[in-house]
Amino acid sequence: MVSRGEIIDGKGMAAEIRLELKEKTETLVQQGVRPGLAVVLVGEDSASQTYVRGKIKACNEVGVYSELIQLPEDTSEKALLARIDQLNQDQSIHGILVQLPLPAQISPDRVIAAIDPEKDVDGFHPIQAGRLLTGLDAYLPCTPHGILRMLKRSGIALEGKHAVVVGRSNIVGKPVSLLLQRENATVTMCHSRTRELSSYTRQADILVAAVGRYHMIGAEHVKEGAVVIDVGMNRSPEGKLAGDVDFEAVRPLVSHITPVPGGVGPMTIAMLLYNTVQSAQRVASLT
Ligand SMILES: Nc1nc(=O)c2c([nH]1)NC[C@@H]1CN(c3ccc(C(=O)N[C@@H](CCC(=O)O)C(=O)O)cc3)C=[N+]21
Ligand SMILES: [Mg+2]
């Protein structure tokens, strides 16, 4: 097999998808429905502020109406739930995203459960998770959906392939495993307590690293010619944004790899807009 170390350009693919969504949005606006996204940010976390800015910027580019709701760090759970209820009722809002993590006094589970499942464009609500698990139509969680889109647009076949997912979060590891399985991959789920991790990852045709630890995946973890998807968002010791994969060491061995930045992150935001437009489309078809 030829190993080319081809970089999967998530940034470029996300720009293409935003262009497609811009057209869809224009059609919806002509039908009298402008898609609207509310982004709720509690507190001052600087990484969260960066990510939220990226989301608002993408909305503007696509023509999606956006509302940024910034609440102080000491906001009570009750106050946040009341704000979510207003957004649930608000007809100009088709998608609600509450940026995670939340301050300690607020239960993320209760907050996610309070979002109208039809406006849950993150796909985090238990109803959406259950729909995905059982194969019903669902808002797909944005990062897993973005990963599948990148694989497809890169022409990477999944059927019968061995996909190994490292990480078992509700946001990435679990749903991406389901989506890969749905595409007829054979999926192995690994996590922080997996023994002899490299004995699994070295079997992977497709390796998804979603651990959240800088340089967790090195050359010794990959099979030659594998496809490597890096979901990590870490800081290097020098303070640079970096993934879970030691990119320089791994790239020469593999057929495809996603960079950080410029890989999974921009696709996550594109899929958030996709879900928001889908939600508005649903409303438009009802009126
Ligand atoms: N309710 C909720 N939904 C989320 O989807 C959500 C969340 N909470 N909390 C935090 C994580 C993280 N996340 C990112 C999305 C895009 C980039 C992204 O675009 N990153 C750029 C770089 C950005 C930079 O320069 O820092 C890139 O990878 O190229 C990063 C991180 C969404 N999350
Ligand atoms: Mg884990």
UniProtKB/TrEMBL annotation:
Any single GO BP term: tetrahydrofolate interconversion
Tetrahydrofolate dehydrogenase/cyclohydrolase NAD(P)-binding domain segment(s): 141-282
Gene3D superfamilies for this protein: Leucine Dehydrogenase, chain A, domain 1, NAD(P)-binding Rossmann-like Domain
Keywords on record: Amino-acid biosynthesis, Histidine biosynthesis, Hydrolase, Methionine biosynthesis, Multifunctional enzyme, NADP, One-carbon metabolism, Oxidoreductase, Purine biosynthesis
EC number: 1.5.1.5, 3.5.4.9
Origin superkingdom: Bacteria
One term of GO molecular function: methenyltetrahydrofolate cyclohydrolase activity
Record text on subunit structure and interactions: Homodimer.
Family: Belongs to the tetrahydrofolate dehydrogenase/cyclohydrolase family.
Function per UniProt: Catalyzes the oxidation of 5,10-methylenetetrahydrofolate to 5,10-methenyltetrahydrofolate and then the hydrolysis of 5,10-methenyltetrahydrofolate to 10-formyltetrahydrofolate.
Protein name per Swiss-Prot or TrEMBL: Bifunctional protein FolD
Protein source organism: Desmospora activa DSM 45169
